[in-house]
Amino acid sequence: MWQVFNKEIKELIRDKKTLFFMIALPVLLFPLIIGSMAFISGNAIKEAQNKVLKFAITGEAYAPGLYDALLAAEDKFSLVDINGSDDYAALIKAQKVDFVLVIPESFEQNLFDAGQQKLSLYLNDASLNMVYNRVNELVEDIAKNRQLQAFQQLGVTDVQQKALLEPIVLEKQDVADKRENWGEKIGGMVPYLVFLLCFQGAMYPSSDIGAGEKERGTLETLLISPIARYKLVLGKFLTIAFAGGVSALITILSMATWGVILSQGMAIKFVAEFMSAISALDFILMFLMLLPVTAIFASVLLCLSIYARSFKEAQSYMGALVIFIILPIMVAMLPGVSLDGGWAWVPITNVALAMKELIKGTMDYFALFSIFGSTVLIAGGLIAFCVYWFNQEKVLFR
After folding, report:
1. Which among 17, 135, 261, 303 is least surrounded, fewest beta carbons within 10 Å?
2. Are residues 309 and 210 in the same domain?
3. Are 211 and 309 a contacting pair, CB within 8 Å?
4. For residues 323-331, average pLDDT
């Protein structure tokens, strides 16, 4: 068994593509994803905030103050002349204007006589254009001035104004700490990335170990060698599991390392506080929970690889398998799904939930017994099936 393992590891090390998916991808993926998301979203928001919006207005004579404010902000708004009979929606869809503001005749009337005023803002709100927010800032300023004038007319004091505007204020007293808050927000995405990287790390060597051996014609040589069939299977299984385990270890280390770099090197306070709250034990438990999951991946991948007639066919089977990994992780991200009850026994979902709880700092460590128990039991059953599968001549020589 160890001779087979040694042989497969040597071939694995020679394969640069496999090494990339085992080592380079986990190390580079976390900063790449975080950096790309921050860069793209930051640029998109900045562009939307700084873009000069083309606008048209009807009924400007009824709101000279608002009209003058729009014209004065030349670096934010640009006036476009239109006819009152034009189709506003067509103008916006044709990108001739970004928005059309329609002002009613009663806009400048006394607040007590006219009551609440409603302006119509026509815009395409399907994209990140921030049109509503930017126009609303100007409207809010005018509304606050009118509000103040009305209160002064009525002789209402500042204290009475607050009471009238907000008779009851519900103050939120959050008992969750920062770690739990941020863990709830990002904890569900960590297992998603980690599981896929572990699967990728195991997938490429498994394709070569089974289907690749068939294509090269070296499988027959192994089968006639004086090695028990189950030892041959276990040697190949350990190679795939080793590749997945290395990916899991590097992924966890990468997550911890880049968290420290972001918190210290970039001086991001909340990241520093969040990362310092996650102990080394939590990272070790994440890695240990991934080992039986990696064994499940390795068993299934080896069965598919030895069943496939070619490397390409094996890749097709394994690519389709990704959906069965994503779905249990997505279940773990749904509201109301937690480690309470039967979810602690559901494979993959239970580990994803446990990783999320470890990141949040709310882990019930007694649940680890059921998590490890169920995952190890399934992994053992799949390894046994893998040995049985490898003993079927109709599978080996399709």
Report:
1. 17
2. yes
3. yes
4. 86
